[in-house]
Amino acid sequence: SSGINAEYGRDGHLLLRVFDVLKKGVVDWDRVNKPPFESRLHVFKSIENCNYCIELGIQLKIKLVGIAGLNIYEGNKLLLSLLWQMMRHYTLGLMKHGDKEIGEEEVVSWCNKRLQVDK
Q1: Backbone φ/ψ region at 101: left (φ over 0), alpha (ψ -120 to 50), beta
Q2: What's the gap between Cα 30 and its chain centre?
């Protein structure tokens, strides 16, 4: 076990709600399996939701390497990488200069210039 307490989000529903915040309307809620599930279908319905989270991450161009829906369901430490990338996506989306979005390259460049000035 990775030590991540992922029981709350194990069915993927919570992550899907976060994806809907990242980009309003990106989640097709008709496609989502909504809890509570029949006990014999719980694992399958949960993993379907988690696989959908991975699809949405790819659609939003979030960097996902070596992670599958099963990793989310199991609370694997790869879940942390997904959460980090979702946070990164959200934060970069908040940064704008006028109507132009600021990308990761601009943030790194700004940081490097600041570090040179502070020396």
Answers
A1: beta
A2: 20
Which tokens belong to 97?
């200069």
**108 vs 21: CA distance, rounded Å:** 25
CB-based burial label for 57 (10 Å; 0-12, 13-18, 19+): buried
pLDDT tens, position by position, 53-93:
999 999 999 999 899 999 999 988 898 889 999 998 888 88
Tell me the pairing of strands 100-101 and 96-97.
Answer: antiparallel
Torsion sign across C-alpha atoms 42, 48, 51, 57:
negative
Per the rule left: phi > 0, alpha: psi between -120 and 50, beta: everything else, 67 is: beta
